[in-house]
Amino acid sequence: MKEKARLLIIDDDPEFVDAIRGVLEGAGYEVEAAYNPRSGFETLKRRPPDLLLLDILMGRGAEGVMLARKMRKDPQLSRIPTLIITGIREQIAFLFPGQAVHPHILPVDELMEKPVDPELLLDRVRALLQAAAARREAG
Predict the structure, then answer these.
(1) Residue 76 CB contacts under 8 Å (≥ 6 apart), including other chains
(2) DSSP string, 41-54
(3) Half-sphere exposure of residue 7, counting CA atoms within 13 Å on the CB side?
């Protein structure tokens, strides 16, 4: 029997977390959640997930961006695929509509905007997990 992929959601909006958790668990994923960057980073270190779904703005500002940067510098966490889900893409200075996410500014694998279409979310999650598996197999 194939083991379920484990996903971690780090977002300070409990209603949003509950909504996407339902979508992801309904698709067969094991989902854990943290509601602030500090507990999220502790969860990442304790039990690294197969995929991270991360909000940008939490707490005092762009703490999701800081967490993504911190992850990329940590050898244990640097290869975890990260999907940013945000509602503020057009308001932040370094992302504009139609531009790709710059790997040095925001080191993540994919970005989605809220509100999230459930089918699109599942497509992105599936694609990121497949890409990560292919990278592991390639060495």
Answers:
(1) 45, 48
(2) HHHHHHS--SEEEE
(3) 27
Instruction: Give whole-number Cα distances, 123 to 19, 60, 89, 138, in Å.
Output: 16, 31, 20, 22
Model pLDDT for residues 124-137, shown as the tens digit of each residue: 999 999 999 998 89
> Residue 91: how many CA atoms within 13 Å on its side-chain side?
8
Q: Note the Cα 2 to chain centre separation in Å.
A: 23
Q: What share of the chain is helix, strand, coil (3-state, %, to 5)?
A: 40, 20, 40
Task: Look at residue 87 in the predicted model and tell me its pLDDT.
Answer: 77
Q: Which two tokens stand for residue 83?
A: 């999907």
Nearest one of 22, 27, 48, 10 to 126, comparing CA atoms: 27
pLDDT (tens digit, 9 = 90+) per residue, 89-109? 555 545 544 444 555 556 678
Say what the pTM is: 0.86
Neighbouring residues of 137: CB distance < 8 A, sequence distance ≥ 6: none
Task: Choose among 66, 55, 65, 67: nearest CA to 15.
Answer: 55
The SS3 of residue 84 is strand
Side chain identity at residue 79, one-letter code: R
